[in-house]
Write a structure and sequence with these properties.
InterPro entries: LEA_2, NDR1-like. The protein is about 20% helix and about 40% strand. It has about 280 residues and is an alpha+beta fold. A hairpin with a 4-residue loop joins strand 2 and strand 3.
Length: about 280
């Protein structure tokens, strides 16, 4: 007995002709992309080939266009232009404010100087040399000083007041300290000139033998060169507004006659200059 060929049932329904996505979705229960077209299924005698397996239920993901890249060069240009514009605006505002203050208050530069230097005492440790018949500085050499300084500060402004902090004074001879003092601060009103006096004292201030010998020669010549450094902090007050304090430095060179001079102790010459810093 001849056996008839066995035909195995297909798991998927046979499709002999291309169908639309909507029809195939209805037949299979799955969703398909609108552009999906299945291939035509063929069968042979005695064998049923399965149709193309269906896609997953999720289907093809939707197309997402990529975001365009930002141009870094354009971003840098924008940052530079914005920064420069802000700086120009800030400079313009500050300049306008300074101009308004100048017009309203008409500020003038204060003046600082050393008015007088008077030596009350200046003793150098020395010994008498019989060979040279002159005074010689001892080794080590010390000096005792009592120097009166007279300072003045002038405020020519009509609407600006000045607040002075503590004033430090240091006197030197050829770089060696021969006296220092501190003056308490004070408050200066408008259009005012203030005079301040202070004694610069030193006891056994050390000097080198060379400096001691040079100082003895200067005393005998009635012309003693001295240097002074004056440091203070100053703040300006305009109405209720007060600026931060800034440093004022005054450097002076003097030539002073000692008390043993024929005309007595007095200031022979002076040269001062001052500067400020924040």
């Amino acid at each position: 007995m001849a056996l008839s060929p066995r035909i195995h049932p297909s798991h998927y329904p046979e499709i002999s002709e291309p169908v639309s996505p909507s029809e195939r979705s209805t037949a299979t229960g799955y969703s398909f992309h609108p552009n999906y077209q299945p291939l035509k299924a063929y069968t042979t005698p005695g064998y049923a080939s399965p149709a193309r397996p269906p896609p997953t239920e999720i289907g093809r993901p939707p197309f997402k266009p990529s975001k365009p890249r930002r141009n870094c060069r354009n971003c840098c240009k924008r940052c530079v232009i914005t920064t420069c514009s802000l700086l120009l605006i800030l400079i313009f505002i500050l300049g306008l404010a300074a101009l308004i203050i100048w017009i309203i208050f008409k500020p003038k530069i204060p003046q600082y100087n050393v008015q007088d230097v008077h030596i009350n005492k200046l003793n150098v440790t020395s010994r008498y040399d019989t060979a040279s018949r002159s005074l010689q500085a001892t080794d080590p050499t010390y000096v005792d000083t009592d120097i009166l300084f007279t300072l003045y500060a002038s405020n020519p402004n009509e609407k600006i007041k000045i607040d002075y902090k503590k004033v430090n004074i240091k006197t030197t001879y050829q770089g060696s300290n021969v006296g220092q003092a501190a003056i308490p601060g004070w408050y200066q009103e408008v259009q005012n000139t203030t005079t301040v006096r202070s004694d610069i004292l030193a006891t056994k201030a050390p000097l080198t033998v060379t400096q001691g010998a040079a100082l003895l020669v200067s005393i005998q010549a009635n012309d003693i060169p001295l240097d002074a450094r004056i440091d203070t902090k100053v703040a300006i007050k305009i109405g209720a507004w007060k600026t931060p304090a800034v440093w004022i430095h005054v450097s002076c060179n003097f030539h002073v006659a000692p008390p043993s001079a024929p005309g007595g102790a007095k200031l022979l010459s002076k040269s001062c200059k001052w500067k400020w810093r924040g």
